[in-house]
Each structure stands twice: as structure tokens, then as C-alpha cells.
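Following up on my earlier message about magnesium ion. Here are the inputs again, as you asked, copied directly from the submission form:
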Amino acid sequence: MSRIAPPGARISVLYPAEEIGKRVRALAGEIAAAMGRDPLVVPILKGSFIFAADLLRALHEAGAEPDMDFIGLSSYGTGTLSLGEVRILRDTEAEIAGRDVLIVDDILESGRTLAFAADLMAARGARSVKSCVLLRKPGKLAVDVTADFVGFDCPDRFVVGYGMDIAHAWRQLPFIGFVER
Ligand code: IMP
Ligand code: MG
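Thanks, got it. Here's what our run produced:
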């Protein structure tokens, strides 16, 4: 299946909205069972914002009462090649010490972003740190990190939509797809 997406490129659908919604609800059930009632959910901006918003509501449905705070990290410029070095673009405001933190990211690729965020939360005294990623790409891990909760193991393509971008475009798509070359 493919659709025309603005500004005129063809996007092939990898995960339709309905499939994402179903998976997000299942993930929330797993997370609520493993982390208890009041985790501090920390989405990594910007790519995870739609996933995190859906996950938060699904956690409510699963009986949890999570707090949420945000961190903005970047390991990319505007292109599709990771620069390898992670920078804090926006820091958290919440007290991290003593909290059960759930880091939420869109994609686990080299693992540098997730490892950086997990180390930071641990250094700030989190009682526990777990992580949830919507997509995990194969064969790209460069650091020793694992995600505790994974939405989908996805093909090794540069994906867009459902909050994810390429050079700031296509975050608004309700599905996840890749740009056809
Ligand atoms: P890592 O640090 O190499 O694991 O890269 C993870 C970060 O890179 C994620 O937070 C994403 O924002 C970004 N990223 C990696 N692959 C893609 C992609 O295919 N589309 C959009 N963003 C991506
Ligand atoms: Mg990101």
C-alpha cells in the first residue's frame, strides 16, 4: 500500500494507524504490570511525542497514574546520518531522584540516544530506569543497551510519520512509512 504524502513524495505504509494503536495498548498493559501505578514517563523529543501521547492515554486505560516530563535530545543534524554524539536540547524539570522512570523513544538504532538518557536518569538518582521504544532497527546497535519494551522490530529503512521526521517533514502522518527512493 502506498499513498501520496506532502510535499509530493510517495510514502509506503509500514504500520497503519490501527496496527500502531493496537500495539500501543498492548505495550501499555505490559508497562503497567511491570512498573506499578506511578511511573515518571520521560519521552525523548521530538520524534516520540505522538507515540508518548498515545502511550500515556493507554497507560490510563491500563490503570496507571503516570507523570510525564520531557527531554529533548539530538544525535542527528537535519539529515539521516547519526552524528554519534548526543546533545541535550531541552532538559527535564521534574525531580528524578527516587522515581521509577520510563524513557520513551521512537526508534532504537545505534542505542546512543537511549543509553545517554538512561545514564542521565540513573545519575540523577532514579530508583529504577526502564525504556520503551516504538521501533527497533536491526543490526545497528553500537552501544550496550536494551529496550525493556519494544513496539515493533522494523526493517532497516529511514521511517517517517507518527511523530517521526526526515529533515522536519512528515511528523503529521497518522501512519509509519518510508520514503520511496
Ligand atoms: P540512535 O541514537 O542511533 O539509537 O538513534 C535513535 C534516534 O535517531 C531516535 O531518537 C530517532 O529520533 C532518530 N532516528 C533513527 N532512525 C530514524 C528514522 O528512520 N526516522 C526518523 N528518526 C530516526
Ligand atoms: Mg529522537
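One observation from looking it over: The CA atoms of residues 11 and 155 lie 15 Å apart. Hope that helps, and feel free to reply on this thread.
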